[in-house]
Amino acid sequence: MKRTIVVLLFSFISFGCSHLPQELSVAEKIELLPFDEVGDMDLVPTNYQALWGGVIAKTVNYTDRTQIEVVYFPLNDRGEPDETQESLGRFKVYIGDFVDPYVYRPGRLVTVLGTLGVREKGYVGNYFYDYTVLHALKLHLWEGKNVLPFLPSEEPLEKVRSRPLFSYQ
Q: Is 101 buried (19+), middle (13-18) or exposed (0-12) by CB count in 10 A?
């Protein structure tokens, strides 16, 4: 009897720990596109969905939406970005509402369920970058998870070099 209870308890704990947070669950019929396969696709606005995550690099608020730039990391079985794996690139997420840039600050882990959008061209520092875009359906910010207290500045080098290193004032 004790053995049965221990087995059931262990099964329940294992089962409970290996699932996505409720807000990220999707219907079984929906095919989620992996990050590494989308890079080669020529996408137009579609209903393709993806479940991606990573480390927030930047959050920008506009008058009608918020843009979050994310450094992609593969997700573990709980849907949490695994920053011990190698990153495959970056993507942008658009949320149709205001999100606080302090809460969604650089270094925090986030997982996003969204629909694929049209690629955007931009820069990471001085490097030209072709971003894949997700329009968020659901977001999950991982509590207590902060990979870095900050990410290095992504200002163009011309601006960084033009600042004085110190001042006598």
A: middle
What pTM value is reported for the model? 0.74
**Is the predicted pLDDT of residue 151 greater than 80, yes or no?**
no
**Which two structure tokens, joined as six digits, stand for 79?**
């849907």
Averaged confidence pLDDT in the chain: 78
- Identify whether the C-beta of residue 54 lies closer than 8 Å to the C-beta of residue 76: no
CA dihedral of 89, 103, 22, 63, whole degrees rounded to 10: -80
Query: What is the maximum alpha-carbon separation in the chain?
Result: 77
Give bridge partners of residue 108 from the DSSP assignment: 146
CA distance 109 to 114: 16
**Complete domains list, the chain, with CATH:** 30-143 (2.40.50.140)
Nearest to 152 by CA among 169, 119, 127: 127
Which pLDDT value is given to residue 143? 87
Question: Which range is least confidently modeled, 26-30, 107-111, 133-137?
Answer: 26-30
Structure tokens at 23: 């807000």
In angstroms, the Cα distances linking 86 to 54, 74, 149, 153, 169 are 11, 8, 19, 21, 44
